[in-house]
Amino acid sequence: MKKALITVENLTKSYGQTTILNQVSFELLEGEILVVLGASGAGKTTLLNILSRLERDYEGSVKYAGDIFKDKTVPLPVVFQDFDQLLPWYTVKENILLPFERKEFTPEDKEIIDFLGLLEDLQKYPHELSGGMKQRTAIGRSLLSDGCCIFMDEPFGSLDNQRRQQLQVLILEINKRYGRTILFITHDIEEARFLAHRIGEIDSRGRLSIVDKAVYSSS
Amino acid sequence: MVRTKWHRLIFMILLIVFWEGAVQLKFYNPALLPSISLIIESFIKGLISGELSRAIFYSLLVIAKGLSISFAIASALVLLSRAKAWLDDLLTLVMTIAHPLPGIAILPLVILWFGIGEKAILFVVVHSMLWPIVLTLREGVIRLHQQYARIGTAFNLTLKKRIYHLYFMGSMPSLLTGAKMGWSRGWRAFISAEMVFGIVGERSGLGWYLFEQRVYFDAPGLYAGLIAIIMCGVLIEKVLFEKIEKGIGLRWS
Q1: Which residue of B has its CA nearest to A91?
Q2: Which of A93, B103, B122, B149 is the most buried (most CB within 10 A)?
């Protein structure tokens, strides 16, 4: 039985009269990749923002397993879809180290950077990178952060098919190699089938139903 | 690009030829339209004697002081305006009132407040520079906030880190645009204040230099002063600002 890192109970989020998330309850399990599907505006990003603590105004409860987050008030690392998550005036290295006090990589950091294939590009600026390398940089920054969860909000939405597939493989490797739990938002069913251990789908009423990948694939 | 430069060169040669032609043919009163050689001689003499070079140095010093003070005040105002909506509204109101007011228009009032001297000049220069800098900096910070604030939140950056890494570093293009607008407004205000109102402190700048040349009816000296003003403008706009712009252009795009 896998341990629940995040337990969500009766989560409801409304903007004015519109209910985006309606009585959502589920658990994010340690070491899994949970992919959440849904149409545009269905509430996928809202759910991610709430779980990563970027959004704190909601009804219901979101509980975090006590021993996994050093500081419960700190937001959890998010990889966003667009490339604005990198500061154009800083190099790849400076962008990755931005949240940290250290100015140089530790040996553990270097191992991750090497694994992501960024060693050669550390002194480059974001405008000198391809879309895929920009996303690798953002993933690197998240991997170096404390905590065992990474939240990804349609991170490959702006990439071509070839780069998208390369990065999907990378996500699976990150999950396997570093044991990171990943909440992945997408509207691409094929991407969900490829990445997920479990798939959640938000319907038009703001309800989330989670099924095993095998069940989802056969449905 | 090369063609444009040839046009410029030809234009300058033609200007000199027409000028000298008009002087040689005594087309106009030589006391008002001196020969180019006399102007150059006056310019060099002014530089060597220190009269003109000191005026240039002092003018640039006042502008540098004005820019530094304006940047400090603008940064504080913009930071404050981001803290509360009503402060931002207040800043918008003050900008609406103060921005269209030319520095030279408030000079009579400033003379009453500060007397005739460097304080009055600096006040007018800062007033001229401040509002365009505040305007561009505020717009830049709002854009940065919309674009990058979530990075600060997602990675829990401290306030110090957010201000420096996101807003200060990110504002470089806005600061440059503000500096360019502020510098040209401040420069005009400074020259006008010295020249029209004849206000100077212990030291004097190019506006006062022109004022003196006019009083002594020294036409070559007047033209030499104008050349110095043009040269300072070209040096700052075309050399300093363009170089900085090229340096940050790509990285901040």
Answers
A1: B251
A2: B103
